[in-house]
Design a protein that fits this description.
11 helices; six-stranded mixed sheet; alpha+beta
Length: 413
């Protein structure tokens, strides 16, 4: 049955294109980014699955008055297997806004094929995270249409709100259905990948985003002694961010880079004219913290640095948490989902994979905190969130074939 499924999926490039074309046509970014949400996109995908005979579809929608539908859609698609165990693939419906339209060579909401390589398509969301949704939908449809009963059941979870915090998506689903994923199920989150496809992500650093507000006294630039220059105080603190990073100097070879990173990033506009000394200055710090440390330790260190800067320059310095995500326990590198995923990737792509950690965050952390050893993997062009976002149709098809290998425990790979 596995060989039949793999052969059938290999011929589904046209279906992958159909799915990508339909999904891309919806500007499914959330209200936090000024968008209408994912409702129409979810309805289209559900209709396609129903047309292919996939009827085990459950909705766990979340109320959100900010979107026209009043709901954020979360969809659970199942194809029963011979055992009670399930392979879950978790993808997300929402995308990020397209950004500056002048940077796009085509309409971001219309899939276009590369004239030199038609395997490559472009459009907002084709990689992040529609490739995962397409691969999962291909498997569900093929199993159903061919009447194949795999050893493990197959489940596709398509959630909202991944790009802006998961409150209306994965968190809502796990809260409403805490027993949805059984302890012996396999869980794959295809929301990170590399161009060569050789990294299986099993761990993520903790994330801490800080907004630092420095308040001094505004005055005319010709009489600087009458004010307290917030920009100077902020600049001094920015130049000392590396000192905090150096305090948290553990190394973990599982990650690349193998250390905690803490970097100043965004800086807000202070005064509009040259000849005014700013009385307020705001900047941001992005911290990616190894699991060896608590994000609260890092927060305390920056608040201590803020107090030193305030005392030195006679200003007030406030450190506010914008986002705080402690590191989750890593998925063991020898867990069943990782070892079997390595086997499947070897069979389909001919690649030898390694397990490692990243500084970014995925919904896998929500599962790992619940004791579920999720693996994060896909083979992508690694261009999410950029203008002219692209994906390979062959990657969607072959990722679907990799998923399929995990469904059959009785057939040697």
């Amino acid at each position: 049955m596995l060989e039949t499924l793999l052969k059938a999926l290999a011929a589904r490039t046209d279906r992958a294109l159909e799915l990508q074309t339909g999904l891309t046509s919806f500007p499914a970014f959330g209200p936090d980014n000024g968008g209408p949400g994912e409702w129409d996109k979810a309805a289209w995908l559900e209709a396609r699955l129903l047309a292919w005979g996939v009827t085990h579809i459950e909705r766990v929608d979340a109320d959100d008055a900010r979107v026209p539908s009043g709901k954020r859609p979360n969809m659970i698609v199942r194809v029963p297997g011979a055992s009670s165990r399930t392979l879950w693939v978790l993808g997300h419906l929402d995308v990020v806004p397209p950004g500056d339209a002048s940077l796009w060579r085509s309409d971001p909401w219309v899939v276009t094929r590369d004239p030199e390589n038609p395997d490559i398509i472009r459009g907002r969301g084709v990689e992040d995270n529609q490739q995962a949704l397409v691969a999962g939908a291909l498997v569900a449809a093929e199993l159903t249409e061919r009447g194949i009963t795999p050893d493990l059941g197959f489940g596709l979870i398509a959630v909202a709100d991944e790009e802006t915090g998961n409150r209306y998506g994965a968190e809502h689903v796990l809260k409403e259905l805490p027993d949805l994923i059984a302890p012996d199920d396999l869980v794959l989150v295809p929301d990170f990948g590399t161009a060569d496809g050789t990294l299986i992500e099993v761990a993520e650093k903790g994330t801490l985003w800080l907004r630092v507000t420095v308040t001094g006294v505004q005055c005319h630039a010709s009489t600087p002694d009458e004010g307290k220059n917030a920009l100077i105080a902020a600049s001094s603190m920015i130049l000392r961010v590396h000192e905090v990073e150096e305090r948290f100097n553990a190394r973990d070879p599982l990650f690349t880079p193998p250390r905690s990173t803490m970097v100043p990033t965004r800086h807000d506009v202070n005064v509009p004219n040259v000849n005014t000394i700013p009385g307020k200055d705001v900047f941001f710090i992005d911290c990616r913290v190894l699991p060896a440390y608590s994000v609260d330790e890092v927060l305390d260190a920056f608040r201590s640095l803020a107090a030193e800067s305030a005392a030195r320059y006679g200003v007030a310095v406030d450190v506010e948490v914008v986002s705080r995500e402690p590191a989750a326990p890593p998925t063991p590198v020898d867990s069943e989902v990782v070892t079997r995923l390595k086997d499947g990737i070897r069979r389909i792509y001919g690649l030898e994979c390694r397990a490692g950690g990243i500084g970014g965050g995925t919904v896998a952390r929500l599962l790992r905190r619940r004791g579920i050893p999720a693996a994060v993997w896909s083979r992508v062009l690694d261009n999410a969130h950029v203008p002219n976002e692209a994906a390979r149709l062959s990657n969607a098809v072959n990722d679907a074939r990799v998923y399929s290998t995990l469904l059959f425990t009785s057939q040697a790979l």
